[in-house]
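Hey forum,

I'm writing up a methods section and want to include a predicted complex as supplementary material. The small molecule is zinc ion. I've pasted the protein sequence and the SMILES. Can someone with a working setup run it? I'll credit the forum in the acknowledgements.
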Amino acid sequence: MKWSQSPLSFLLSFVLFGLFTAIANAQAPNANEVDGVYPDAHALYLDVHQNPELSGHETQTANKLAAHLRSVGYDVTEQVGGTGVVAIFKNGAGPTIMLRTELDALPVEEKTSLPYASKIRTKDDAGRDVPVMHACGHDLHMAAILGTAEIMAHSKNTWHGTLMLIGQPAEETITGADAMVRDGLFTRFPKPDVAVALHVGNELPAGMASITPGIYNTNADSVRITIYGKGGHGSMPQTAIDPIVIAARTILTLQTIVSREIKPGEMGVVTVGYIHAGLKNNIIPDQAEMGITVRTYKQDVRKVILAAITRIAKAEAAAGGATREPLVERYEGTDAVYNDPALAERLRAPLESALGKDKVVIAEPITPSEDFSYFVAQGIPGFYFSLGGANPEKFAQAKAAGTTLPSNHSPLFAPDVDPALRAGISAEVAVLRNLLNASAEELHKLTAEHEAH
Ligand SMILES: [Zn+2]
Ligand SMILES: [Zn+2]
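Reply by user p_vandermeer:
Happy to help. Structure tokens for the complex are below, copy them as they are.
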């Protein structure tokens, strides 16, 4: 503001600012609203935390979430794309806004020593006996969506339109979002004008949130290379073609892709996560297999890396005298999540009204991946934000000591449930009320740039 402005315009902007703040604040739930639903949300948290289920097997979890949502007035459909849940609440004319939680847990043995730590074991898809833990915080996402669902159902006068809550299975195997879309998520049910999700983590203290406009995380590609050699006696290498030596050279050459073929400063990761070959020291095996994960932010960088992997695998096999080309398979993958920049800008104010002005920060993109991008790929502008999960004191101690708290997927991952869950509910309600006070046309206009991406 310039000092040359008249006192009147100063007063006017002050009043307008106050009015704007009041509107934004009206969208954040008050403490009574959150207190009213907290016991239900917390009970669901404890229940699903102690009864986690692996990706694609979230039957009991889905049943529980569906039953709760039905009991507070949602029109609930189960078994969408496997164990997926779709809960619709129609509240007059207006846009359709989707909010997503995941349902699945991970094959991790919980070592948090919490009184409610998971002791569950089960058989995985390969028939192995494995421990199960909600080590990624999806239990907290489910609890938050239930609290949010109740507040929205109890405050119909604060919003209008269609609220669509979904419980997505199999996020950890990046297959569940695609399965729900294929099973008619956006044809059997209303197609949302905006899709929203959050993720809890220890990178921020509980009570805070961060927004990343544009690219939020990475494209992920899983690649498997099978190298064909020729088996023989370990003492007679001249009679064999050793696939282990070819694999070793391939691994080292793969490490030149990011360092030599990608522009410095561009994000690219090529990690060989496993290599399987051979059974005994004096036998040259006839093949070797390796598994690779590739992470990128940009599509052009992704293309260069994937093409280079194939080229290098073939060339190294040829150099080693392999008589057959290696098999290079990209067997799974997901696109980076793209946050519509206009939405990110619009939704900062309601997040600040819910959590506090100094509690919402802008963050850099992260390297893990996520299949929320399948929803965005259907032409739906997305808003995906991070929710603080760390105990604030432990967070400050770790920061002072130059260490970090256990990340998602760690056996020690333990969000500070009370403040994180309350913040999650407040943040979701504020964002939903903001979007569900606009018209669909207004949101389309706002996110029109999205098409250009
Ligand atoms: Zn995860
Ligand atoms: Zn997760």
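Some notes you might quote in the supplement: The pocket of zinc ion (ligand 2) is lined by residues 102, 136, 138, 171, 199, 408 (CB under 6 Å). Confidence is low (pLDDT under 50) at residues 1-5.
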